[in-house]
Design brief:
The protein has one domain. Helices cover about 85% and strands about 0% of the residues. It is built from three helices and no strands. Helix 1 packs antiparallel against helix 3.
């Protein structure tokens, strides 16, 4: 079983914290700018996850191509 990297754990913690604050507190109602910053953070987390996934697929594809060439 693969261990979760710090980066992945950080993403999950950020998303969970955002959801908890959004659902169970009135902070974003009181401070809409803070909500906007949180949404931008969620977008950055999503983009980072996408970039990491593409890199992972490229490395898998590269290893498959190397095996088929030999």
């Amino acid at each position: 079983m693969r261990r979760m990297s710090r980066r992945r754990i950080g993403r999950v913690v950020y998303l969970l914290a955002f959801i908890v604050v959004q659902q169970f507190t009135g902070v974003f109602t009181t401070y809409p700018t803070l909500e906007l910053i949180g949404i931008i953070g969620v977008a950055i987390v999503g983009l980072d996850a996408l970039v990491c996934a593409v890199r992972g697929w490229r490395s898998i594809d590269g290893s498959l191509l190397d095996d088929s060439i030999e």
